[in-house]
Amino acid sequence: MLPSILHCARPLPRSLSRSLTHFTLYMDPNSSQPVERAIRTKLTNMLSPDHLEVHNESHMHAVPPGSESHFRVLVVSSKFEGLPLIQRQRLVHEALKEELSGRIHALAIQAKTPQQWSSNPTLDKSPGCMGGSRGDHTVEEKLKVRRE
């Protein structure tokens, strides 16, 4: 009977299937922050920052404890001199293209020159989670089923 049920089941759209696969693979609460470590390493290697902050904000969202899916980065680098904000953000995206293709669901970027940082050494605050599955109290159970 199971094969007939599987045969009748409608496959998920490719984009949704891919995102769910990455979501469950990298939400292991027992990990030792490999995504955060990769972000720090790659941004340091590509941008030689004067100042770098990487904040895992996953706890502010409807994801399992210990997740590494939502990040805020502050990068201060002389490589940003003369570049518009969009170009700076593209450099950060380029450095993290592997992580952004699956491991990271959301990335907030502050990309400043050393002069901008010296005149305003602050990190923007992220707003609270307003959507997704925050109100769905069955999320943990659904994620547990997907992991099995």
Plain-language structure description:
This protein has 148 residues and is α+β, with helices and mostly antiparallel strands. Helix content is 43%, strand content 14%. The chain is built from seven helices and three strands. A three-stranded mixed sheet has the order 1-2-3. The longest helix is centred in the N-terminal third of the chain and has 14 residues, at 34-47. It is globular, with a radius of gyration of 19 Å. 20% of the residues are buried.
Keywords:
single chain, 148 residues, alpha+beta, 7 helices, 43% helix, disordered N terminus
Give the end-to-end Cα distance, rounded to a whole number of Å: 21 Å
H-E order: HHHEEHHEHH
- Supply the helix-strand structural class: alpha+beta
**Percentage of helical residues?**
40-55%
Q: Biggest sheet: strands, sense, closure? A: 3 strands, mixed
Summarize the structure.
The chain is built from seven helices and three strands. By secondary structure, it is an alpha+beta fold.
How is the topology of this model organized?
Layout lengths: L1 H7 L5 H12 L8 H14 L3 E6 L13 E7 L8 H11 L1 H4 L5 E7 L1 H6 L19 H9 L1
Parallel strand pairs: 2-3
Antiparallel strand pairs: 1-2
